[in-house]
Write a structure and sequence with these properties.
The protein is of the alpha/beta class and 337 residues long. 43% of the residues lie in helices and 15% in strands. The strands form four sheets. It has a seven-stranded mixed sheet, sandwiched between helices. A two-stranded parallel sheet has the order 6-13. It has a two-stranded antiparallel ribbon with strand order 8-9. The mean pLDDT is 92.
Length: 337
């Protein structure tokens, strides 16, 4: 069998996706290399200064001020073509405003959030000119030497309330991409399943009001189909261990398999080539409140509850309007947990 352009492109697509997935295990390698460099005479001082910079000086993970020049590199085009990822626009985003884009569902690793929204691999900047996205991730990712620089140049920011507020207020057109369901939702990821953890998630609504940022729900049809997962009952030992890991580390490990890197099934590391259609819903306007507004008051609680209800409604309507287009039965409903 000859080498064709299609096979070369498929290989580059697998390489692109595999490179991004490798960032997690490479964190251990990065620390090993960093500590080795600390013990080499010619590199010990630069590495010591670098650690001081990471842990005590650099505030860019909390401000989103690092120049995100990696959003447009060719890697993301091949990444997006692997599935492929397609963005569906349902409303305009005003570049004079700021936004919180809620990404649902989490899936195993939120592949679409990286390839569709955090980067321009699927053409986000063409659909929404003037909007700069900042994917929200765990603060621990910015304490990993070397790899943190990749995250920063992708425009990522950490998940602390301070960071969310700073990024949203940094400049017009800033948009946080927040995977609302978090690590807990990753345990729900099963092919064909449509369930999101949202009923008690209201902190992001409060942050949107504080920063006067509009809310944009989006649903990624196909995110849960990218890996085969093994679901465990809540009473099982495995599930309890996963929950303990989630509480201790802020993330957990769904047990899953994908397609192979070299052949179809070995090693089962990559996500399947399943279409990933990300529907970006209509923005929900958030009222302006004074800086002294009391969110704990009855008025404050009612405002957050009302906005949360509007968000849930728009997410559900987004799902209902588009599910038929992606082969989902009319009888299937989005579960809001």
């Amino acid at each position: 069998m000859g080498i064709t352009k299609k096979r070369i492109d498929e290989g580059l697509e697998s390489l692109a996706v595999g490179s991004v997935l490798s960032l997690l295990p490479l964190a251990v390698v990065a620390y090993i290399i960093a500590f080795i460099l600390l013990y080499i005479p010619f590199t010990c001082v630069p590495m010591l200064l670098y650690f001081i910079w990471i842990f005590f000086i650099d505030k860019s993970p909390k401000t989103g001020t690092a120049t995100p020049f990696l959003k447009n590199i060719i890697l993301w085009k091949y990444y997006a073509n692997h599935f492929p990822i397609k963005l569906i626009k349902t409303g305009e985003l005003d570049p004079k405003k700021s936004y919180i884009i809620g990404y649902h569902p989490h899936g195993v690793i939120s592949m679409g959030a990286y390839g569709g929204l955090a980067s321009n691999g699927a053409g986000f900047s063409k659909l929404f000119p003037g909007i700069t996205t900042h994917l929200v991730t765990l603060p621990v990712n910015f304490f990993i030497p070397f790899i943190r620089e990749f995250h920063l140049r992708m425009g990522l920011c950490d998940s602390s309330p301070e960071s969310l507020h700073n990024v949203l207020k940094s400049s017009p057109g800033s948009a946080l991409v927040l995977v609302v369901g978090g690590a807990q939702e990753s345990l729900l990821a099963e092919p064909g399943k449509h369930a999101v953890i949202l009923s008690t998630r209201k902190g992001f609504i409060r942050q949107a009001v504080k920063a006067n940022a509009d809310l944009v729900p989006c649903y990624a049809f196909g995110e849960n189909n990218l890996f085969k997962t093994i679901a465990f009952s809540e009473k099982s030992i495995v599930y309890k261990i996963q929950v303990i890991l989630k509480k201790a580390l802020s993330f957990t490990f769904p047990i899953c398999t994908g397609r192979g890197i070299i052949i179809d099934s070995l090693p089962p590391y990559l996500p399947f080539r399943e279409p990933l259609n990300i529907v970006i819903g209509k923005p929900i306007s958030v009222p302006t409140v004074p800086s002294t507004f009391d969110f704990k008051s009855e008025e404050g609680k009612k405002l957050i509850d009302d906005l949360h209800s509007k968000y849930v409604q728009e997410l559900n309507e987004t799902f209902e309007r588009h599910k038929k287009s992606f082969g989902i039965s009319p009888n299937v409903k989005l579960q809001i947990l």
